[in-house]
């Protein structure tokens, strides 16, 4: 059983966030499953990830040292996720490729920041493989 119900990042507006994340998460076969004035929820079959307006009604901010890692089903999905992020207002934080330090020898991962400063990782054959 998983110990995490969902993860979320803050965005300046649900509309702006959804413009980016709708396409980005489609590269992994996930879709927007629910939307309210305060959040948009994404997943394949159940909600795993949300973009949110901060509950305290203060400005959103990206965490320093914090990142969210999305699980890909293939190296091609890693590459597509990273390419989409960089082509749609995100910035590269690490090109797709192998990384040392993971227990699986065939790990393939990439890093990017979304247009709002949140650091994202996408991985194939990572810890949850």
TrEMBL record:
Q: Supply the SUPFAM superfamilies for this chain.
A: Glyoxalase/Bleomycin resistance protein/Dihydroxybiphenyl dioxygenase
Supply the InterPro entries for this chain: Glyas_Bleomycin-R_OHBP_Dase, Glyas_Fos-R_dOase_dom, VOC_core
Q: Which residues cross the membrane?
A: none
Q: Where is the VOC domain?
A: 3-125
**One short Pfam family name for this protein?**
Glyoxalase
State the name under which the record lists this protein: VOC family protein
Organism of derivation: Pyruvatibacter mobilis
